[in-house]
Design brief:
With about 230 residues, the chain is of the alpha/beta class. It contains eight helices and seven strands.
Length: about 230
């Protein structure tokens, strides 16, 4: 992986940050320099660790460049959280400019969105999809493992195609160790529903690993297109 990769979700709280860390770990393993940009961190108080800090914890301190552009105290969509806090919103252009600055000095920049693809940054309705279009960057979609994921994954992929934004594939953000019937079927069905390849499956609980075992295991969770050596199963 080189260049810019945007990481979005087909929902929220489905493993985006851990997936971002896994991609970062694979890039670091290949000798790449990596930056992680979180445009809008919500629901975290000033001074508390956010998603960028969590990626840093999982891949090892000081191994990535982490940047957070805005932080809003309430756990809401960025535009809503900014309005309620009386704070300035971010625009897609600001996020793209910050990404391009990081890309000038790093092999890979991972831009982790907040929630789903069409969550708004500002009153004009700009989203991570707009950022990806400005940067001509693909979007990696993190999906749930169980019931409901076929619909949300298909809708997210349809939104990408409507905006002429490339999809880098889908990763199951938290696959149970003992998957049930729905989880097993979804591994085969997700690509057919969404029209995007399934390029990884992160095991449930991966975010609780210490840095060294996380870095060692991450390549086995992701396909070669993401710098890994495994495949979803």
């Amino acid at each position: 992986m080189r260049g810019v990769l945007c990481v979005s979700g087909a929902g929220t709280e489905i493993g985006k940050t851990v997936t971002t860390a896994a991609v970062a770990a694979c890039a670091l393993r290949a000798g790449r320099s990596v930056a992680v940009l979180k445009p809008a961190q919500t629901g975290v108080a000033s001074g508390e660790p956010g998603d960028v800090a969590e990626v840093g914890r999982l891949v090892g301190e000081n191994r990535i460049t982490g940047v957070e552009l805005a932080r809003y105290p309430e756990p809401l969509a960025p535009q809503t959280a900014a309005r309620r806090a009386g704070m300035a919103c971010l625009s897609a252009r600001e996020v793209a400019d910050a990404t391009e600055k990081l890309a000038a000095s790093h092999d890979l920049v991972l831009v982790e969105g907040a929630g789903g693809l069409l969550v708004r940054f500002d009153e004009e309705g700009s989203t991570l999809a707009d950022v990806a279009r400005l940067l001509a960057a693909p979007v990696l979609v993190v999906v749930q493992a169980g019931l409901g994921t076929l619909n949300t994954a298909a809708l997210t992929a349809e939104a990408l195609r409507a905006r002429r934004v490339a999809g880098a594939g889908m990763v199951i953000g938290s696959l149970p160790a003992d998957p049930g019937l729905a989880e097993r079927c979804n591994v085969a069905d997700l690509p057919r529903y969404a029209g995007l390849p399934l390029v990884g499956a992160v095991p449930a609980g991966a975010g609780r690993l210490a840095p060294e075992p996380f870095r060692a295991a991450a390549p086995g969770w992701l396909a070669p297109s993401l710098g890994g050596c495994g495949h979803p199963s």
